[in-house]
Amino acid sequence: MEVYYTIEKKAVAEFKDRGSKFLAFAFPVKSTEQVKECLQEVKKEHPKATHHCYAYRLGTDGLQYRAVDDGEPSGSAGKPILGQIDSKQLTDVLVIVVRYFGGTLLGVPGLINAYKMSCALVLQLIPAVQKNVEARYQLVFDYTILNDVMIVVKQNNCTVLNQDIQLFCSMEIGIPKSSLDLCLLRLKDIYNLEVKAM
C-alpha cells in the first residue's frame, strides 16, 4: 500500500430522529492522545448530552481502532460509526457522536441508523485527502550541503517532520514509499550525508 485516505479538517453535522438530537464531530487525528483531547473538548462543549459515542481508526495499516458505545446498547453506536469511517476507507480519523435524548426510545435498529446517518453526514462535509504512506529517515549532515539535501527532499515529495539547522544539521523526513528506492539512491549520492532509517 503506497497511499491512504484521511481528512485534514474538522466538521460538525446534525441529525434528528423522534426528538433525539445527534451531533457528529469529525476530527483528523494521529494518536490516541489526540483522540483523548478531542473527546475532552467535545464533552466540555456538551456536558448535558446523554451519550458521547465514538470510533476511530489510526495508522496507515489501519490496525489501531476502537468503537465505544458510551452507555448505548452494545454495538448500536460505536460499530455503526466505525462502519462509516471504513466504508470511506479512511484512517487517522475520529468521529464523536453526541446524543441529546428526546424522550422517545429509538430501539437498537433506530440507534444503529441514527449513529450511522450522523457519521455519514459529517464525513460528507469533508473531502477525503490522499496521502503517501511514508518511511521515516534521519539525515545528518554539514550545513554546506543543505541545498543539495533540500533539492532531493523537495523533488521526491518528502515531508520534513523535524529539523535542526545549524553548523551541523539533522533532519527527520518521511519518504513516500512509492519513491523510496530512488530517493535513497539520490540521498546516498550526496557526499558526507548520513542516512539512517528510524
Automatic annotation (TrEMBL):
Span of the signal peptide: none
Gene3D superfamilies the record matches: Impact, N-terminal domain
Domain named Impact N-terminal: residues: 18-121
Coiled-coil zones: none
A Pfam family assignment: Impact_N
Organism domain of life: Bacteria
Record-linked InterPro entries: Impact, Impact_N, Impact_N_sf, Ribosomal_Su5_D2-typ_SF, UPF0029_Impact_CS
Homology family: Belongs to the IMPACT family.
UniProt-recorded name of the protein: YigZ family protein
